[in-house]
Amino acid sequence: MPELKQKKLGTSWRILLTPEVGVLIPILLLVIVTTILNPVFLTRRYLSSILVGCVFIGVCSLGQAIVIMSGEIDLSVGYVGCLSGIMIGKAAMAWGLPAFPCVALGLATGAFVGLVNGLMVTRLNLSSWITTISTMFITQGLATTIAQGIPQSIESLGLSRVATDRPIGLSWLFFMLLLIVIIMDFIIRRSKFGYQLRATGGNREAAEMAGIDIRNVKLIAFMLAGFFAAMGGLFDVLNANTASELFGAGREFRTIICCAVGGISLAGGEGSIYGVGLGVLLFHVLWFCLRILNVNPNMQLVLIGLIMVLSLVLDFQRKRLEVRKMV
User: Fold this and answer.
1) Domain-embedded: residue 324
2) Percent of the chain that is helix, strand, coil (3-state, to 5)
3) Which residues, at least 6 apart from 63, have a Cβ–Cβ distance to it below 8 Å?
4) What is the CATH number of the domain that holds 223?
5) Does 2 fall in a domain?
6) Among 53, 94, 137, 156, which residue's CB has the most CB atoms within a 10 Å radius?
7) How far is it, in rounded angstroms, from Cα 137 to Cα 145?
8) Using the 8-state DSSP alphabet, how is residue 70 labeled?
9) In whole angstroms, what is the distance from residue 248 CA to residue 228 CA?
10) For the residues of 207-224, what is the DSSP string, one character each?
11) Residues 61 and 255: beta-carbon distance below 8 Å
C-alpha cells in the first residue's frame, strides 16, 4: 500500500511539473480574476477574439520554437512574414496571378530567407543573432521598397471567406493553426527529425558522436522557421484582405516570449509544442484582460512585461523542482 501511494504521488508530480500545466495555471487565474472584476470577459465574443488573435503570432512562434530547440535564435521572423505577405499582395494586385501561385510564392519567400539564414549559420559559422538581425533589416527594407507605401489588395484571389467565415465563432485560420500544432507536436515528439533536433540543441558534441548531421538539422530548422513566418504573413493578409508593410513589426520578440513562457528552453534541446501554443494563449489572455479592465495603455506594457517575467520565474522554479524529484 505505501508503495502504491508513493507511485500515485510520483505520477501526480509528473503531471504538475509538465510545461503545459505550468502555463495553464496562470491562464486560469487571469480568467478567474478578470471575470470577477468584469463578468463580460467570460463571454463567447471575447473568448472567440482571444483564440482568433492567437493565430498570427501562434504560427510564427512554432517556427521560432524549432530554431530555439536547435540551439539557435531567429530574429527575422516578423519581417520575413511581412515580406512574404507583400509578395502575395504584389503577385495578386500587380501581376494578376491566381490564388495558388500567390500563396506558393509567399511561402517560398519565407522558406528561402530561412535557407539563407541557415546557410550563413551552419556553413559560414556566423552567429544566429547577428545573421538574423541582418536579414530582419534586409527583409524590412525589401518589403518597404516593394510596397512603396501602397497596401496590396488580394481581393482578386477570392480568399476572404477563409478569415471571415466563423464556424462555432472561430475563423478557419484558428483551425488551421490547431492542426499545425498537432502535426508539429507529433513530429517533434515522435519523428527522427524531432529526436535529432532535440539532441542537437541539448548536447552538440553528443549529437555529433551519435552520427547526427547537426548542420543539416539546423538548416532545416531555419527553413521551417522561415516557412512558418511566411504562413503568419499569409494569415495577416487573409485576415485583412490586403498586404501591408506594417504587418509583423515586433513579432520576433513576442514569439521568443511565448516560446520561453511555453517551456521552450532558451539553451536549446527541450520544449513542448503544446506548451508554445499555451504560451501564445497566455500572452493574448493577458492582453485582453488588461484591455477589458481599461488599464492605461502605457501601463499595459509594463504589466505584460512584469507578468511574463513572473511566469518565467515560476517556470524556472518548476524545472528546479523537477530536477530535485528526479534525484
Assistant:
1) no
2) 80, 0, 20
3) 74, 77, 114, 224, 225, 226, 227, 228, 229, 255
4) 1.10.3470
5) no
6) 53
7) 12
8) T
9) 13
10) HHHTT--HHHHHHHHHHH
11) yes
Residue 4 placed within a domain: no
Measure the N-to-C terminal CA separation of the chain; round to a whole number of Å. Answer: 23
The C-alpha cell at 174 is 484558428
Nearest alpha carbon to residue 275 among 7, 62, 55: 62
What CA dihedral angle connects 8, 189, 281 and 42, to 10 degrees? Answer: -50
Contact residues for 142 (Cβ-Cβ < 8 A; gap 6+):
83, 86
Q: Per the domain annotation, does 244 fall within a domain?
A: yes
- Domain total for the chain? 1
- Whole-prediction pTM: 0.89
Which amino acid is present at 284?
A: H
Q: CA–CA separation, 148 vs 159, rounded Å? A: 24
Alpha carbons 267 and 20: distance in angstroms, whole number: 19
| Per-residue pLDDT in tens (0 to 9) along the chain, 327 residues | 444 444 444 555 566 556 677 788 888 888 899 889 888 888 888 888 888 889 989 999 999 999 999 999 999 999 999 999 999 999 998 898 999 999 999 999 999 999 999 999 999 999 999 999 999 999 999 999 998 888 888 888 888 888 777 887 788 899 999 999 999 999 999 999 999 999 999 888 888 888 999 999 999 999 999 999 999 999 999 998 899 888 888 888 889 888 888 888 777 878 889 999 999 998 889 888 888 888 887 787 787 777 667 766 766 666 666 666 555
Q: Find all residues with CB under 8 Å of 208, minimum gap 6, and list them.
A: 214
Which residues have C-beta within 8 Å of that of residue 197, sequence separation ≥ 6? Answer: 66, 69, 70, 188, 217, 221
For residues 52 and 67, give the distance between their C-alpha atoms in angstroms, rounded to a whole number. 25
Please give the sequence-ordered ranges of beta strands (E in DSSP) within the chain, or none if there are none.
Answer: 152-153, 242-243
The DSSP code for 157 is G
Look up residue 262 and give its three cell numbers: 511555453
Contacts 24+ apart (CB under 8 A), 166-173: 166/48, 169/44, 169/48, 170/48, 170/51, 170/52, 171/52, 171/55, 171/239, 173/52, 173/55, 173/235, 173/238, 173/239
Identify the domain containing residue 113 by its residue range. 23-38+45-319
